[in-house]
Hints:
Shape: elongated
Strand content: 15-25%
Bound molecules: fe (ii) ion
Amino acid sequence: MIFRQLFEPVSGTYSYLIARRRGAEALIIDPVLEKVDRYIGLLRDLDLRLVKAVDTHLHADHITGLGALRDRTNCITVMGEQTKADVVSMRLADGDALEIDGVSLDVLYTPGHTDDSYSFVMEDRVFTGDTLLIRGTGRTDFQNGDPRLQYESIFNRLLKLPDETLVFPAHDYKGDTVSTIGEERRCNPRLQVKSVDEYVALMNNLNLPNPKMMDVAVPANMHVGLSQEAVKERGWAVTPDEAIGLVEQSDIAFVDLREPKERARHGEIPGSISAPYRTLSEQIAGGGVVRELARNRRLVFYCAYGERSAIAVRAARESGIEEARHLHGGFDAWKRVSGPIKRV
Length: 344
Ligand SMILES: [Fe+2]
């Protein structure tokens, strides 16, 4: 297993790079924009292919590296379904699994610091974002924070994990790198309360100044989505309304780039062919299923929000597949115009 805890000193942020082995797929949790060059260098050194960049929540104290990593590696950007970020490529919900080759993280919705805060459990460890910090907890006084929800998230979700579970938070300002669930239960001063009301009173009386970067970071982090306009201007996009008219046409193939779990949860456009985004380069190479399909069909790629498909349509065109377009806004936009949906 490859596991790297990376530090950004200005905001005191920890980012985590995870992969099963050298040469495999990788994911990164809570990357910071200023460190993207370093992540790319490390990926190269370890011969890893970044496939997912994940934020535990919408950060107020630093600008996320999600957009820059997507632009440089074509990775999938991932956040929770409650996020107000304009577009991320994949949205998770409680109970989902966050997966790459040989690695699976359980997804826990742990609101309270923000209403889009998630934690991820991987084998012997948990990534707690700003929900549970080492000897602290994330503030709850902005971004729809709620101390009552945070109490529930900590006491009824995170502290239910085995005591020896390692705790890796999104921040530390004192130089601590890791703790355990048992240690935090016993020693975290914020958790020595007798009731939820006591916790709420404690959190509501912290009177913290706003983070220095907040006015810059929050708006920037809300707009990490890939602009699909350039793809549209080149005539490589179809609107959801246009796409509805293409469903029955025999010379059209809808290619669904989402993962099996996303398809199972949301359904698909009737008659779609599944080709998960992670396998795209093989699918459009010589002998690949999508390339074969393109011999006598016009392709319409789609995904959840149009981000993966916008990248795919460019890759397909670059590989010489000329009759390729994508569904602008993705399956989310399709649902909004009441396009037909088949359960998978
Ligand atoms: Fe935060």
